[in-house]
Amino acid sequence: CHMELTGRGVLITGGSRTGSAIALALASAGADVALSYNSSKESIEQIADSVFETGQRAIVIKGDLSRSKDCVRLVHEAARGLGRLDILVNMASVYTRKAYDQLREADWDDGLAVDLKACFLCAQIAVAYMRSCGGGRIVNFTDWIAASGRPRYMGFLPYYVAKCGVIALTEALALELAEDGILVNAVALGPISPPEDFDRTDRTAVEQATPLGRWGGDKALVQAVRTLIKTDFMTGETIRVDGGRHLR
Length: 248
Prior knowledge:
With 248 residues, this protein is α/β, with parallel strands linked by helices. Helices cover 47% and strands 16% of the residues. A seven-stranded parallel sheet has the order 3-2-1-4-5-6-7, sandwiched between helices.
């Protein structure tokens, strides 16, 4: 059924950079929000304070999503702290450039653990709570490059493989959970906001490579997540939020 946000419990994993706008938007619509962090405690607590100001509950939970035990504990703590769990937004990600000849097994393990395995584990624990609520929504985060079906930038091998895996996981989970009324979709992010290390030249290059000619900003991201939460008939889908970037 169509999902309204009033009174819902939401867990957002690892969203210290782009998760703020999502948390605020969902709280403003009436949801209580749990936020996880590994190292960025201060920025996550600032997001929680902003959620409090909307009149909704916010809890902050520390966890290293490369560790299975932390994934399990995180979801249980979120559900207990909020009293229910209806929506899981898997945002945690490892995004580091490393030349192929320098890659080690640990780089592969760390990348796939956070970007792919954690999505699976968090969903697995969250499903029991969603079933008790009569249904739910899972929104996974992948990348426009993975959704385009071919790697375009060298130096991101584990990241690319993991993000392609997230699309496959989204489809498989959607099939497994459909009869429970749990809809599973993914957002494939494109140029939403410039990384902190981007200078004017870098930012302009991305704008010129994007058919819509600009960065999407938080609004584009929030609209996509809200759409995937509100839908009652779309599941197993990956939506590219990239200003047409994949077309070039």
